[in-house]
Amino acid sequence: MPMKLMTKDMRRRLPPLCSQEKKTADEVPVIAHFFSCVNGAANWYATEFDPNEERFFGFAELFPGCGELGYFSLAEFEELNRSGRFPIPPIERDLHWDPERWTLQDILDGKRP
User: Fold this and answer.
1) Is the pLDDT reported for residue 35 higher than 60?
2) Which one-letter DSSP state was computed for residue 81?
3) Statement: residue 1 has pLDDT above 60
């Protein structure tokens, strides 16, 4: 069974979409980190969440050096994990991620665990 990608604590901590527009990147905490177990290079860093659409906003980097701010879908991650197309769940949540430590500016600057 695939891991739970969204926890109650994450739902509580993730601010609504567009609620941090007036903040600078060093004021925006990265609440969750997801990564691909299939290609080993893809990473998603969530800073906001819309529970109605199950959509995150944050930084997505599918290949090293090729990242951008944008939206990504919890529902799509979960569907991919349930699909059975891969021998292991392709998307996992970083269980050791510390949202108190990392800001969006850290991620944009290439500082990563």
Assistant:
1) yes
2) H
3) no
**Per-residue model confidence as pLDDT tens digits over 55-108:** 999 999 998 888 999 999 999 999 989 888 887 889 999 999 999 999 999 999
The CA-to-CA distance between both ends of the chain, in Å, stands at 26
pTM over 0.90: yes
Tell me the CA distances in angstroms from 90 to 37, 56, 105, 109, 111, one per residue in order. 5, 18, 27, 26, 24
Q: How far is CA 22 from CA 14, 26, 28, 38, 100, in A?
A: 16, 12, 10, 36, 20
> CA–CA separation, 19 vs 13, rounded Å?
13
Question: Which stretches does DSSP call E strand in 51-106?
Answer: 55-63, 66-73, 91-93
Task: Decide: residue 12, CB within 10 A, 0-12 exposed, 13-18 middle, 19+ buried.
Answer: exposed
27 residue type, one letter:
E
